[in-house]
Amino acid sequence: IDVIAYEDIYHNDIKKALKVDSNDDYDRVSIEDYAEKVASTSKDYLKQLFETGKLSDITIKTQSNEEIKAHNFILSRSKVFDAMLNAHNTKEAKEGVIKITDTDYVVLKEMVRYLYCDEAPHIEELALELLIVANKYDIQGLLNESVDHLITNVDVDSFAQILIVADRLNI
Fold it and tell me: What does the alpha-carbon distance between residue 159 and residue 70 come to, in Å, rounded to a whole number?
């Protein structure tokens, strides 16, 4: 197969992936457009997996006995969860259940959402609690976003509480 024929096959595959009519009048779909479409589709799929729990292989049980369905490969973005779930002799790895009794369900749900989607839409209300769990489970991106939010929004009422938590976490 020559280079030109291969390039045509490649661009036709991209057109199919982008759902572009092959009769459309344009030269080529840029690799940036293709990458953006793939990233968007992947993010949407991960968000759907988070929201539905479809094909989940791990259950997080909270202090109130509520459950969050999750996937090992997603939770493994956290070094702590990775060590917990990918060692064959841990209770969590054997049972597929992680019990977290020291954190509220809403905070855990937001933390897991971050692992799936790299977003924390409720950071406004939960920044301090998210900072604590991000530190505990070694989720650097969430920790950074929480710190940035707290620094940006610190006021007289929240300063002392933020200082106490930062000192406790050695941040």
Answer: 35
Q: What is the DSSP string of 78-91?
A: SHHHHHHHSSTTSH
Residue 100 bridge partners (DSSP) = 62
CA distances from 146 to 13, 29, 30 (A): 41, 38, 35
Q: Report, as an integer, the average pLDDT of 98-107.
A: 96
3-state secondary structure of 20: coil
Phi, then psi, of 96 in degrees rounded to 5: 75, 25
On whether the CB atoms of residues 136 and 146 are closer than 8 A, the answer is no
pLDDT, tens digit (0-9, with 9 covering 90-100), for 114-125 = 999 999 999 999
Using an 8 Å Cβ cutoff, are 161 and 128 in contact? Answer: yes
In angstroms, the CA 71 to CA 52 distance is: 11
Q: Please give the C-alpha separations between residue 50 and each of 27, 62, 99, 127, 164, in angstroms, as whole numbers.
A: 38, 17, 18, 21, 33
**Residue 139 pLDDT > 50, yes or no?**
yes
Q: What is the pLDDT of residue 123?
A: 95
